[in-house]
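Translate sequence into structure tokens.
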Amino acid sequence: GGNKFDLVFWNLPYLKPDSKLTETLGPLEEAALLDTDASGLFERILNLMKNDILTDSGIALFIVSSQNSDLRPEHKCISKGFASRVISKLSFDDGEELRVIAVWKPFNNAKRIFIEQASSTNTELLDSNYPTGSSICTPKQTTGHGRRGRDWIDAEQSFAGSWKLFNSIPRFEPGFMQILAGICVKESILALTSQGSDDEILIKWPNDLLVHNSSRWKKVCGILAESRTSGENTSVVLGIGINLSGTESTGHDFEMGFLESFSENIEFEDLRVAIDASLASYFEQKDLISNKHVEELLERINIEIRKSISYLKEPLYRNKQVSFKSILNDGRMEVIDKNGEIITIDDGESLEWGKVS
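Result follows.
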């Protein structure tokens, strides 16, 4: 009837059509249990929610079964520009798991600004009074910077974007945010392409993403969290720089890599929309939806870093071989030396990565 709704709820069908199965089902059971849509009913309703069903501040709740392993609902949400968060789980003795996934339009009150050129998107956003979730994106930065004030060198085709994540005391430490944002960017890239695999993008502590190309790991993305305090308010922005395409350069611990080597089909605007949705999934404080627990996020971060080290091999610390132990909730890394001593490191410059494979 043309109405939009504050709440959408659906127990999604999860069985694949099967001639033997449909012979045993009645019409109502078939409609409730079988996903017969060519592109999938979940994708169809996401398309409808953009403009026709869900209000800008509304929430959709979907029950998803692990039996529908091909669905990948979080990736579908990101690719369509929706934030999502698992808010409840229920496991059964036969191994099936049901999840309730909350879906919403990210950062409802935010400003989204595109400019052809910027000095530094982080600086411009810190200088602004834009609300939480606002972003500034550009294909060209003239004075972009990285950790320790280093210049960020743009590739010939680049993506530079900054998001204001907090306008008050932040929930996370900057180092923790940078790694978490790395996961967001990785998920955004994977959601936008059917090519490539999870193992072809690595998160390198403390704030880089690497892609595999020409038998080597190359840096494709850098992330920097910065803050500014005025009175009792602290603004925190997160800058993300991605090399889309260009000419390789060396002289760093990892060569410059390009997103086009992973996929040639990712457009600038699609990347902005996907990252916006992925960041909101982890960082946005949405009414009626509980925040992700730090312990859950920390577990995910440690899984990613262990996977990265399995490819990059254990690093050297002050010219001595060490083994990775864990990432702490402030973003620092714990390593163990050959004597069994635990060392806490807060600076990626302290580590030297050996010959990569």
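Note: The CA atoms of residues 98 and 190 lie 24 Å apart.
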